[in-house]
Amino acid sequence: MRLNSIRLEHKKNTASSQSVPVPVPKTVRISMQQCAGAACEVMVQKGDKVFVGQKIGDSDKYISVPVHSSVSGTVTGISELLQVSGKVCKCVDIQTDGEQTVVEGIKPPVVSDRESFCNAVRESGCCGLGGAGFPTHVKFGFDDNKFSVDTLVINAAECEPYLTADHREMLENTESIFEGIANIKKYLGIQNVYIGIENNKPDAIKVMSRMAAQTDSTIKVVPLRSVYPQGAEKVIVYNLTGRIVKEGKIPADVGVIVINVSTCGFIGDYMKTGMPLVKKRITVSGEMVGKPCNVIAPIGIGFEELLRFAGCDLEKLGKAITGGPMMGIDIFDLTDPVCKTHSAILALPKEVKESKNIMISRKTQTNCIRCGRCIQACPVGLMPTELEKAFDKKDRQTLKKLRVSLCMNCGSCSYVCPAKRDLAEKNQLAKALLRT
Question: Hey, what domains does the chain have and what are their CATH numbers?
Answer without folding.
Answer: 22-106+276-349 (3.10.20.600), 114-273 (3.40.50.11540), 373-435 (no CATH)
